[in-house]
Amino acid sequence: MDKAQQDALKKAAGIEAAKLIENGMIAGLGTGSTVRFLVDELGRRVKEEGLEFTGVTTSRRTQEQAEGYGIKIVDIDDVDHIDITIDGADEVDKNFNGIKGGGAALLWEKIVATNSNKIVWIVDESKVVDTIGKFPLPVEVIPFGAGHVIKRFEARGYKPTLRLDAEGKPVRTDENNYVVDLHLDRIDHPQDLAEDLITTVGVVEHGLFLNMVDKVIVGDPDGPRVMTNSNK
């Protein structure tokens, strides 16, 4: 699938998801290429349909895009709940386990998701997999002692790499932390791995989002289809 086809599927999923936002809602807005189409559509609805809602964003990038459309964005600590969060995902399997953090926003994404009444992911069909892990698993780590955390991951066979930008410098998250990507190929026991990662000193958060999502809207060539998590 070429990029134009993939973008068309992402756009269709984003437009479908935008229908879930209603007047007066507090909505979490995720980060990434599919979410950009969602925010474009919400901007259109604000302008053309008079939609009024309050947004909480998972990155500064999304905040800037939304505010450009006149969408009201507030800090997460200024709201007592979030009605629905719509975000992308890098991979999701049939058990509704996902990997997020390809865009290095996983910590904010998880904080917003955890405080949401309902979570919806929008993806193109290439992101739906049998077993997660082919996409490298991002782990956000504090810069101090990061080298030791990486050595520990190496010893456990996690095949870690420090994520670098185009200039060869470590990528920094919105909280100024580093991202270490684990090249696992497949994750057969995600709960055990999640527990191991989060209890490693120096790790702030990891990109395993396990059984958190309520619905996944998949951009499909035949039109968007919805996967509903019956365990939620």
Descriptive key words:
alpha/beta, 232 residues, Rossmann fold, seven-stranded mixed sheet, Alpha-Beta Plaits, globular, 6 helices, isomerase, 30% helix, four-stranded antiparallel sheet, 2 domains
Topology, element by element:
Blueprint: H1 3-18, E1 26-29, H2 33-49, E2 54-57, H3 60-68, E3 72-73, E4 84-87, E5 91-92, E6 97-99, H4 106-114, E7 119-124, E8 137-141, H5 146-155, E9 160-162, E10 178-182, H6 190-198, E11 203-206, E12 208-210, E13 215-219, E14 225-228
Parallel strand pairs: 1-2, 1-4, 2-3, 4-7, 7-13
Antiparallel strand pairs: 5-6, 6-12, 8-10, 8-11, 9-10, 13-14
Helix pairs in contact: 1-2
Task: Explain how this protein is built.
It is a single chain. This protein has 232 residues and is α/β, with parallel strands linked by helices. It folds into two domains: 3-128 and 210-228, 3-Layer(aba) Sandwich (Rossmann fold), CATH 3.40.50.1360; 137-206, ACT domain (Alpha-Beta Plaits), CATH 3.30.70.260. Helices cover 30% and strands 23% of the residues. The protein has six helices and 14 strands. The protein has helices at residues 3-18, 33-49, 60-68, 106-114, 146-155, 190-198, and strands at residues 26-29, 54-57, 72-73, 84-87, 91-92, 97-99, 119-124, 137-141, 160-162, 178-182, 203-206, 208-210, 215-219, 225-228. The chain has a seven-stranded mixed β-sheet with strand order 3-2-1-4-7-13-14, with helices on both faces. Helix 1 (3-18) crosses helix 2 (33-49). The chain is globular and about 55 Å long. The mean pLDDT is 97. Its EC number is 5.3.1.6. Keywords: Isomerase. It catalyses: aldehydo-D-ribose 5-phosphate = D-ribulose 5-phosphate.
